[in-house]
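Model it.
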Amino acid sequence: MSKNFGYLGAVALGAGALLGATALPASAADTGDTTATFTLAGGSLDVTVAADAALTDGAPGAASVSGSLGAVGVSDTRGSTAGWVVSAASTTFVGSTGSTSNGVSYDSGDATATTGIITAGTDGATDIAVGAPVADGTAASGNNTASFSPTLTVALPASALAGDYTGTVTTSVA
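Modeled.
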């Protein structure tokens, strides 16, 4: 029996040596984090307006004339929460006979369309003889657009003479 035990012991020792020489799986390495970054470039804040607008012709003795200035669009691709303010200023309207207007009012009306996250508001009829805010965009988040269809009203004095009148309305956004 001791021979068998010796033989079995030798086999067991050989198997143990074989096991010791066999590579065991390595334990898992610690985990590592990689911080990835990127920059999202902001765009611009722009306003678009019609090149020209023909107001409704006035009747003899009219106190004012009015009409649409066409579409006014605001495009904000700054990707921010800043919001914006549309302002307008007008020159005096001068007639072909030298007669002049005595006041210009701008009413942006409600926004006709918006995209993105923006609350577009209006300031109602506003005297723009020296320039004034006429619409705004608040509660902005990211890129957005808004469109308006403003009405311009030009007041005429009782002494206004017949003829063609011309003035310039400058619209800006900040």
